[in-house]
Amino acid sequence: MKDFEFYNPTRIIFGQNSETNLLYEIRKYGKRILMVYGGGSIKKSGLYEVVSQQIREANALCFELAGVQPNPRLSLVRRGIEMARKNNVDFILAVGGGSVIDTAKAIAAGIVYDGDIADLLMTGGTVTKALPIGVVLTIPAAGSESSSGTVITDDEKTGLKRSFGGEALIPEFAIMNPLRTYSLPKYQTACGCSDIIAHLLERYFTTVTDVELTDRLIEGCIKTVLNNAPIALKKPMDYASRSEIMWTGTIAHNNLLNTGRVGDWASHNIEHELSGFNDVAHGAGLAIIFPAWMKFTHTRDMDRFVQLAVRVFDIDPTDKPKEQIIHELIETFENFLTSMGLPIRLREINIKEQDLPSLARKAMVGRTQVGQFVPLDEKQILEILTLAL
Ligand code: NZQ
Ligand code: ZN
């Protein structure tokens, strides 16, 4: 196990009545609030009214930035920064999923940043100052409700999807009501589950040894999603499975599970170029890239793959060579993703062979390697993309 420091101050307020706490949290942080939200799901579900009422009860003034799209755009971040500066905003409230939260974070950083926010994004700089952020979460997926990062697509110049972060961007609180996830379309539920599993697998594939505790915690989290995703997809109003998935989504990405170990993150970095290229949902892109990455890298540490196969995916190892067990692991994982209605090949999302070299090139822009478990160069990324075709 490596030395580590763990810090995650987000107050998690979880459950069916969690939204009634919002006004107390708002009173702690802001009098002039910028509320950020997406394309309308919160209005349809009634959450917008609930949140607005809490803001009124807290006697705070509210300005609104609506229209955040999935794979959020830099241009909207700029609009938010302008709006927040003009109105002297002192607190940013994100009501939505990862895209909304990431937009809120980029605005919170941009308001107090001296230079151009685009530079921060392209260099992956560390943020030490930002306005406080609060979250009302509507989709378990990105884990942004208690993570220190924000992922934004530069829709102005490069088309690249990049991230930056820092402790100042960790939200102060996250209100998480599983009832609010009942309205999620099946596809978004599935994309969220795929992203959560990917966050767990990115951490699982490490070269650091003696990490039994975090191995087993990660395995338990993956198993929880494997067990509960099919239930939530079949019965969208099943509170038990919705809450298991929601809490796992936060734990998967609040950095507890990478204590003492170094994760990989190649699949995420490769996937971000897909989202930047054809706007595929992040979780769907990961369902395509992760199995291909596993096929390409498994010889690096076959025992780790076998451990995952046996402990989490219930593969029977008796009398089988490691290669066979790993083949069954990847096949079982792909079948699970397909059973949730997700694509597992690039051609299913209309990405063709001739698109691959430029995707591989973009994944390397500003980087000397991608991934830690197996450090990849452009040629190897192209091989993974070809396996994903
Ligand atoms: O825009 P609205 O109308 O709200 O609809 C959204 C959106 O279309 C809809 N939705 C959300 N909650 C709903 C709902 N529809 C009905 N009922 C609800 N309760 O779902 C769609 C997707 O929303 P989005 O916020 O894009 O989803 P997600 O949470 O998966 O976020 C994905 C983004 O997060 C980034 C991804 O790259 C991607 O851009 N990530 C951020 C991370 C971080 N900051 O730590 C880490 C992740 O690895 C990830 O990269
Ligand atoms: Zn992710």
Structural overview:
This protein has 389 residues and is an alpha/beta fold. The chain folds into two domains: 11-180, Rossmann fold (3-Layer(aba) Sandwich); 184-388, Dehydroquinate synthase-like, alpha domain (Up-down Bundle), CATH 1.20.1090. 49% of the residues lie in helices and 10% in strands. The strands form two sheets. A six-stranded parallel β-sheet has the order 1-8-5-4-2-3, with helices on both faces. A two-stranded antiparallel sheet has the order 6-7. Strand 6 and strand 7 form a beta hairpin. The longest helix is centred in the middle third of the chain and has 23 residues, at 212-234. The structure holds 5,6-dihydroxy-NADP and zinc ion. The site of zinc ion has 6 residues, from helix 7.
Structural key phrases:
alpha/beta; Rossmann fold; Dehydroquinate synthase-like, alpha domain; 2 domains; 15 helices; binds zinc ion
**CATH topology title of the largest domain:** Dehydroquinate synthase-like, alpha domain
How large is the share of residues in beta strands? 5-15%
> What is the H/E string?
EHEHHEHEHHEEEEHHHHHHHHH
Main sheet: strands, sense, barrel: 6 strands, parallel
Quaternary structure: single chain
Shape by Cα distribution = globular
* Distance between the first and last residues' Cα: 37 Å
Hetero groups bound? 5,6-dihydroxy-NADP, zinc ion
Radius of gyration equals: 20 Å
Number of helices: 15
Q: Provide mean pLDDT, rounded.
A: 97
Any idea how many domains?
2
Reading off the top of the CATH hierarchy, the class of the largest domain is best stated as Mainly Alpha
Number of strands: 8
Strand order of the largest sheet: 1-8-5-4-2-3
**Unreliable runs, pLDDT <50, ≥5 residues?**
none
* Helix percentage: 40-55%
CATH superfamily of the largest domain: Dehydroquinate synthase-like - alpha domain
Structural class: alpha/beta
* Architecture (CATH level 2) name of the largest domain: Up-down Bundle
